[in-house]
Amino acid sequence: MIKKIEISKNLRKLPPYLFAEIDRQKKELREAKISYIDLSIGDPDIFAPENIITELHAAALIKENQKYALDQGKYELRKAIADWCHDRFNVTLNENTEIIPLIGSKEGLVHLPLAFVNRGDYAIIPNPGYPGYRGAAIFAGAKTYELPLLEKNNFLPDLKKIPLTVRNKAKIIYVNYPNNPTTAVAPAYFLETLVNFCLKYGIILAYDNAYSEIYFERIPKSILEIKGAREIAIEFHSFSKTFCMTGFRIGWACGAENLIKGLLKVKTNIDSGIFGAIQQAGVAALTKEGSYTTRIRAIIKERRDFFAHKLLEKGFPKVYADSTFYIWAKLPPNFTSSIDFSKYLIQEKKIVATPGIGFGKYGEGFIRFALTVEKEILEKAIALF
Ligand SMILES: Cc1ncc(COP(=O)(O)O)c(C=O)c1O
Hints:
- By secondary structure, this protein is an alpha/beta fold.
- The protein folds into 2 domains: 9-47 and 292-384, Aspartate Aminotransferase, domain 1 (Alpha-Beta Complex); 69-288, Type I PLP-dependent aspartate aminotransferase-like (Major domain) (Aspartate Aminotransferase, domain 2), CATH 3.40.640.
- It has helices spanning 9-13, 18-31, 50-60, 75-89, 105-116, 132-139, 164-169, 188-201, 229-232, 239-242, 257-270, 276-288, 292-313, 338-349, 375-384, and strands at residues 37-38, 99-102, 122-127, 143-148, 170-176, 204-208, 233-238, 251-255, 319-320, 326-330, 351-352, 354-355, 366-370.
- The strands form 3 sheets. Strands 2-8-7-6-5-3-4 form a 7-stranded mixed beta sheet, with helices on both faces. Strands 9-10-13-12 form a 4-stranded antiparallel beta sheet. Strands 1-11 form a two-stranded parallel ribbon.
- α5 (105-116) crosses α11 (257-270).
- The protein is globular.
- The structure holds pyridoxal-5'-phosphate.
């Protein structure tokens, strides 16, 4: 008899990936030939800048780009990242030691703990939060400590509530502002408290700034602008959201030299760099598409203003939409379970949205709508409520 092959204990600890479950539900609708409005995933409908597609075509024809890429990425790309960070945040980075291009920011976020976390160390993760952090912690053998992001605290964590035993055994904390899913933007005083906390307890600050450019009223900061952060923080950026390049798979990490070095060592053992033509597309985006993000913000803002306002009119008690292309809405009064509400939306309205609990237990009571469809489609969705 053939011995049954079991999946690993680590993998068993992971819940099904949130979006995989939503994909399954969408597949069911498609198979039943039922059309639906998809407001579930943060994958922008807006085209990436045309210039970068031209650049991608041209670069793909160059033999050098068809070879294995350097793990550390092209110098030209690292330089473009350094210049962009300088223009945007007034942060000066050394392109050789403080920047590393990634195959999407998720790749770096998930690989980072493998460089620094030992079995039994704590990884502190936000709840509700982007599901990738949990996987990252578990693959590295860490214990997770869930940091609640509560409405009453403006969805900022209360660091004082982290028990001393956890602080002393924590190796890494994931923090994400502009925040998915709550849309909160972090004020400077919180970032200062956070950096001081990490410095005091020697905790790596993995700052996920994937939505740094999707803002409206308040302009998000880089954690690297905060005094002391350069010693302890590594910040993650994504071309996916900034330039609507989700499928290209490109992002970067920047920050403390030793953290970049550790991540590079892990990556050297796992991947073999980013396709050269995609790196050149990234250079084109950063150096030639300064006005693109302004345009994207205007489009998302128009959608947000419309949808947030209408949801309130339709009886949603509270709607958060301060940044990102999401709306974090409190469930209507007759619902207490976000799963029940999302099932109701699918079955009765043919609208797919993400139940808050999918981001962690403190997401219960909320539903997330992604504004990644045209306004006309949002109008149709609203008419269905
Ligand atoms: C908070 C957050 N971080 C990181 C990512 C990963 O982005 P990417 O890997 O496409 O750069 C996402 C994607 O949805 C996200 O929402």
